[in-house]
Design goal:
UPF0317 (chains A, B), four-stranded antiparallel sheet, 6 helices, homodimer, alpha+beta, seven-stranded antiparallel sheet, lyase activity (chains A, B), globular, D-Glu_cyclase (chains A, B), PSTPO5379-like
């Protein structure tokens, strides 16, 4: 098998569809946007889309799979989003039901799929600029925290913002603000730099999701809005059914990261 | 009456609500975002919001008035959007029915209001940087053109992008790209600079909407996506009922232009 980093998005999705790739997608089809998935019943779709519209930092919409469609028409028109993610999770009334590699049987015409940007996009920009990404260095998951920053309510959806954290020097933090400001539609600039208590985080070494990472001397924690937020908010209303990707098992789009840079 | 430019948004909306200001809002409450209005039946709301999401340059959503609400909860929570616009237009099945100063009797709980960004926001940035705005100099409406650039379809909504045009020198055009790139959520950077035929405009002196303006020697036309696009696209599907603002008679929000700058 050739280097997964050089797969085209279509090649990667084909492997996944044929169950020849049933593992996380980090490092696959480098340079292309990978997205979180949240599938909800149609009657919740307007409120959820409005929630994302009002909270673009934690909930950057990449594309939407319209009722009856199998593909996101802009992000990957040749895909089948019911089979092209290596691992899905199914929830009923907010309770985890199963993990599966194919949701064709479950996903019906009354559901709408939302593809939501993930931090892989801006991490590429950070790496290119030699800003360290500690959880990659330490080969673990990014630490994530529930904050005291409220999202803007929309319809029945509301809740606190979840953030991810990357430690770096203050000089690197300034560069990181510049780099990620170029990508307002995939989380954009940080939401906070420095003292975690200000945003309601009591113990930086005890994240709510993911793993704790080393913060070296003279480093400050830098916080970005995290794509876990919309899933958490949606789960909170206990929808009849909800389908998501399994953590790290993302949908690979045909869109290049650089297309999402506004500068 | 004090200088309208210095009105607070709440003061301006009160005057309008009490019918003491029944004229265009250009130059009122300077520095605050003014918005286009499009009110549609609830059953079209998801498709329309998705259309705007997919076409952020012509259709930048500022806020949404949810079914049953009278105010946009983020943009102006103390407003009454059924009375706070100086002049509305009502359409039934795509046909103009009436112009009115109050839509309280018409707007019911089955409708959703969309506030869409207008070019006033980035024109302020251009003026501050001494980039000329010819239609202001010539005291007429901005020239607008239907292009051959297709919007991205969403549900039943589709159609060509409408653009507005401002002529300037090539040097000013470069500055204008920089200035308007700061505002991706109110039309953002231009969609085209130079030869109008490339985007399907046959006669630059014969705009589809608004007025023709002088293009001086050594000036090039610079085109921005225009907020007329979503209204034109919505009208095209002939909704049972649709309410809009009358041209130039905008909704004044509590949000400052600068809040919408990403840099």
């Amino acid at each position: 098998m050739s280097n997964p980093a050089h797969f085209s998005p279509a090649e990667a999705r084909k492997l996944i569809r044929e169950k020849n790739w049933v593992k996380p997608t980090s490092g696959v089809a480098n340079g292309y946007i990978q997205a979180n998935l949240a599938v909800l019943p149609k009657e919740l779709a307007f409120d959820f889309l409005l929630f994302c519209q009002r909270n673009p930092k934690p909930c950057p919409i990449i594309d939407v799979i319209e009722p009856g469609d199998v593909a996101p028409q802009v992000a990957a028109p040749s895909a089948n989003v019911k089979t092209d993610i290596p691992k899905y999770r199914v929830y009923k009334k907010g309770e985890f039901v199963e993990e599966t590699t194919d949701v064709t049987e479950i996903w019906d015409e009354n559901m709408v799929g939302f593809l939501i940007g993930c931090s892989f996009t801006f991490e590429e920009a950070l790496l290119k600029n030699e800003v360290p990404i500690r959880h990659i260095e330490e080969n673990c998951n990014v630490p994530m925290y529930i904050t005291n920053i409220p999202c803007v309510k929309a319809g029945i959806f509301e809740g606190p913002m979840v953030v991810s954290m990357r430690p770096m020097t203050e000089k690197q933090a300034i560069r990181a603000v510049q780099l990620t400001s170029r990508f307002p539609s995939v989380h954009g600039a940080p939401v906070h730099i420095g003292n975690p208590e200000v945003i309601g985080i009591k113990d930086i070494h005890n994240p709510d999701f993911g793993d704790s990472v080393t913060i070296k001397e003279r480093e400050v924690p830098v916080f970005w809005a995290c794509g876990v937020t919309p899933q958490a908010v949606a789960m909170h209303v206990k929808p009849e059914i909800m389908i998501t990707h399994a953590p790290g098992h993302m949908f690979i789009t045909d869109l290049k990261n650089e297309q999402f840079a506004i500068l």
